[in-house]
Specification:
This protein is α/β, with parallel strands linked by helices and 317 residues long. Helices cover 37% and strands 15% of the residues.
C-alpha cells in the first residue's frame, strides 16, 4: 500500500451523487427452492467481487442476496464517514428482508475479508436462524506478504490518531488477485484513478482506502474478538496459503477462538486475497456448497481432514 495525504476531500457534486441503482444497492437473485445465501463483500469492495459465487449458488437453486455495504459506491467524502456499525446494519437489514418474505428454509451467509467478520456478527446475533457461515479470507489484521514493512508504525499513526481524517492508502499490485488477466483489468483502472474517482468503483471497488475505514475495521475486530467463543453456528474458513493481504494466521485465529462445534479450515494454493474472483473461485464455490450440503444433511461435527494438522504446516510458505 502506498500512502496519500489530503488536507480536505472535495465535496460531492450533484453529478457524482447521481449513481445508478446497482451502485446504490446490491442484488437479489430469486432461487427455485427454500435455501438462501447472504453474500457480503469486503471493505471498500463491491458486490461485483461476489458475482461468480452468486450465479453459482443461484443455479443450484439458492436465493442469493448480496447487499451493498453502507455508503459503498458513494464519493470518498461520504464513504470515509462510514462506521462498521452502519456496514453491519446493511447486512442485518438484508437478513430482516429475507425473513419478512416468509422464507422457511435454511439461511447461510458468507463474507469476503471484512465481510467475513460481518457474517460472524450476524451468526452471533441470530444463532438459531443462521445455518452456517463461510469466512473467505477473513481480515482481523493486515499481515500478508504484500503489506509494507513499516505498517506497524504507519498504520497506528495514520489510523489510530486524528490524522486518520487526512490519510488514504492506495491499493497496489497484485490487488489481491493472482490471475494475470483479471489483475491487468483492475490495474488499468487503479493506476489511473484519482482519489475522488468513482466511475469504476461499482465494478472494481475503490483504489484508495480511507484511514478512517481502517480504524473502523479495528473497532469491528475489537468488538468481535471477545464474542468469537459465543458463536456456536458451524463455521467454514477458506483462505489462500499465499494471501497477499491477510495471512493464514487470520483464519487460524478464528478457528481456535470460535465456539462452534463444527468448524473447518480450507487452504488454497493458487490464489491471493480475493478468492471469490481469483484462480480457484470454482474450488471456493464447490467447497462452500459441500459444507452447506453437509449441514443440511444434519452434520454436527468437524470431519477429521478439516482440522488444522499443525501450525508449522499451515503457515509454511
Amino acid at each position: 500500500m502506498a500512502v496519500a495525504f489530503s488536507i480536505g476531500v472535495r465535496r460531492s457534486s450533484d453529478q457524482a451523487l447521481n449513481h445508478k441503482a446497482d451502485q446504490e444497492n446490491g442484488f437479489w437473485l430469486p432461487g427455485e427452492d427454500d435455501r438462501t445465501l447472504i453474500l457480503i463483500h469486503g471493505l471498500t469492495g463491491t458486490p461485483n467481487e461476489l458475482k461468480f459465487l452468486a450465479n453459482f449458488f443461484n443455479r443450484k437453486g439458492y436465493t442469493v442476496v448480496c447487499p451493498r455495504l453502507a455508503n459503498h459506491g458513494r464519493p470518498m467524502d461520504i464513504l470515509k464517514t462510514t462506521t462498521w456499525q452502519a456496514c453491519y446494519q446493511s447486512v442485518r437489514e438484508a437478513y430482516v428482508k429475507i425473513q419478512a418474505k416468509g422464507r422457511s428454509g435454511p439461511v447461510f451467509t458468507a463474507g469476503l475479508s471484512m465481510g467475513a467478520l460481518l457474517a460472524l456478527l450476524l451468526a452471533e446475533e441470530f444463532p438459531d436462524e443462521i445455518a452456517g457461515v463461510s469466512c473467505l479470507s477473513p481480515t482481523f489484521f493486515y499481515d500478508g506478504w504484500n503489506m509494507p514493512w513499516y505498517r506497524h508504525v504507519l498504520f497506528p499513526l495514520c489510523c489510530l490518531t486524528p490524522l486518520r481524517q487526512f490519510f488514504y492508502f492506495k491499493e497496489e499490485p497484485p490487488y489481491g488477485i493472482k490471475n494475470a488477466a483479471i489483475r491487468q483489468r483492475v490495474h488499468h483502472y487503479y493506476s489511473r484513478a484519482t482519489l475522488h474517482d468513482v466511475d469504476g468503483v461499482a465494478k472494481h471497488g475503490y483504489p484508495y482506502i480511507p484511514a478512517t475505514l481502517l480504524y473502523q475495521l479495528h473497532l469491528c475486530v475489537r468488538h468481535l474478538r471477545p464474542r468469537l467463543p459465543l458463536i456456536r453456528v458451524p463455521v467454514q474458513l477458506i483462505q489462500a496459503q499465499h494471501d497477499d493481504m491477510t495471512s493464514v494466521k487470520n483464519s487460524l485465529f478464528i478457528y481456535r477462538k470460535v465456539g462452534s462445534q463444527m468448524k473447518e479450515l480450507e487452504l488454497l494454493q493458487n490464489s491471493y486475497h480475493v478468492v471469490t474472483a481469483d484462480q480457484e473461485r470454482e474450488v471456493v464455490a464447490q467447497k462452500m456448497l459441500e459444507f452447506f450440503t453437509r449441514l443440511q444433511g444434519g452434520a454436527t461435527t468437524t470431519p477429521a481432514d478439516a482440522c488444522p494438522s499443525g501450525d508449522d504446516a499451515l503457515l509454511a510458505s
